[in-house]
Amino acid sequence: MFSRPSFIDDDAIARVVADHWLPEITEVAYLPWGFGAHHWRVRGAGGRALFVTLDQLAPRHTAASLEAAYAGAAALAAGGLAVVCAPLPAGTGRFTVDVGPGALSVTPWLDGRSPTETEAREPGHVREVVAALAALHGAAPPEGLPRWTPRVDPGFPDGLRADTAGVWTSGPLAERARAALAARCEAIGRWTARYLELADLARSRQGSWVPTHGEPHFANQVTVAGGLKLVDWESLALAPRERDYASLLDTAAGPALAPDPAMVELFALDWRLSEIAEYARWFAAPHTGSDDDHTALQGLYAELSDAT
After folding, report:
1. 0.85 cut: is pTM over it?
2. In DSSP terms, which residues pair with 221 in a beta bridge?
3. What is the radius of gyration, based on Cα positions, of the chain?
4. Domains in the chain, ordered, with CATH?
5. How far apart are CA 170 and CA 71, in angstroms?
6. How many C-beta neighbours within 10 Å does residue 208 have?
7. Cα(first)–Cα(last) distance of the chain, in Å?
8. Tag placement on the chain: N or C end, fewer CB within 10 Å?
9. Are 226 and 82 in contact (CB under 8 A)?
């Protein structure tokens, strides 16, 4: 997230990291990176650095499901999957620590950088990503790995229609968001019906599901001296392999992936509807008009206008 969280400060982050991962903290720096979680770089004595993530749980996760995803990523790395930048266990042996408003986890600090969108489409990089995903999809699923489930249910369109029927007074962008959602309720109903139909088809084929990252796009890729690393494994789940192909389908590698068109459609809808649901919750709740709020509003507009 671009904005610091209002519910926890750097000193509290330092105390948790010192208690569970890295004693003698010498530096805590908030990182305005990504969208959806909060991040810090924490250094200890001797210069060792950790990348710290604070995930807020509901509605995407429970404490148990987030722990299972991170434990699964660590198991994949321990099994030899080099592309995984795995979370580090806390002193308890778990990979997450409850901090009240969310769960804290850490990974090693990577000495590298993420590609730009343009760089991520270069043939050499695309080949590296395809090879990394093939290794992930071919790996034995760790015990307890979460299974993909639909992100919205049949009641989502009607609930949204009811929620957007009256004025929203939750913040400076609330009415703009409400009006945009209300204008697309009919389309959201169509998308949801098709989504759940495709989800039923996917669940009828669970025997072919594989470990999937969920969001292996350029922002979750880091190129280091040893090659490509994928970060942010909170969305790790057993699912159809097409869940990981969104950023590759329109590259030169797309045809060779031979994706199932129905599953491609499923996961395009999975992304769109889950984003719409998240943004609806965001703007129905109190907000101040921060940079994050404005970014979220543009994201909502994009998801509502990208399809008919």
Report:
1. yes
2. 230
3. 20
4. 1-109 (3.30.200.20), 112-307 (3.90.1200.10)
5. 37
6. 9
7. 30
8. C
9. yes
Q: Is the bond into 59 cis (omega within 30 degrees of 0)?
A: yes
Tokens of 109: 């600090």
Strand partners, 31: 39
Residue type, position 65, single letter? S
| Close Cβ partners of 210 (under 8 Å, ≥ 6 residues apart) | 136, 137, 138, 139, 141, 238, 239, 240, 241
Tokens encoding 248: 């590759």
DSSP 130-188: HHHHHHHHTSPPPTTPPBP--SS-TTHHHHHHHHTSS---SSTTHHHHHHHHHHTHHHH
What pLDDT does residue 153 have? 97
Report the sign of the C-alpha dihedral through residues 292, 293, 297, 298, in that order.
negative
Helix (H, G, I), strand (E, B), or coil: what is residue 30?
strand
Question: What pLDDT is stored for residue 117 in this prediction?
Answer: 94
